Amino acid sequence: TSFEETLPEGMGKYYYRVVSCTTEDGGAAVSDAIECGSAMTIPYVEDFSDASSLDLYTCIDANGDNKNWKWAENAAVSEDRYGNDAADNWLITPPLALSADWIYKLSFKTKAYGSYYVERLETAFGSGTTVDAMTTPLGTYTVNGEKYVEHSSLLEVKADGNYNVGFHHASSGYGTFQSLYIGEVKVEKYIPTTAPDGVTALD
Question: Of the residues 96, 108, 121, 155, which has the fewest C-beta atoms closer than 10 A?
Fold first, then answer.
């Protein structure tokens, strides 16, 4: 028996669940998940609605303290840090197919554990899923309060290709930070780089 289907454009992890159709409940069998595709297409939106949302992300515990990003409460969460001197966790997106013909807008929503704790978030991008690959800084943000706040920055590449965006939980100060939440990530086309210049030399 064989089965074929056309998968959606872009990158994803896919599995199949097989259920027997009989008069008695025979349970279900689930296949291994297989990654397919080379990059996510634009517009890209991740709302972290379930635990599998992080399957295509790279989570890096850069200071080796066994604290890292995880999925919880419909968000990507850099785990509790209370009692540590500093946080150093990276969350890196799957590859995004970007073109030099466009300037892109990166938007994301953040919150902290509560109003007492103050978190520091840095964003950067590059080609690859390592800390060293995050070569182009985008922004630095102070995150405070338990309600989501949206932030944005512009992203421009010099050549067509696959790129990754990194979110760095970089809080410091003993007892003053705890957990950082990212509730949504979006990348969309914003301004074409081929847009005409403004009118000059008017009489």
Answer: 155
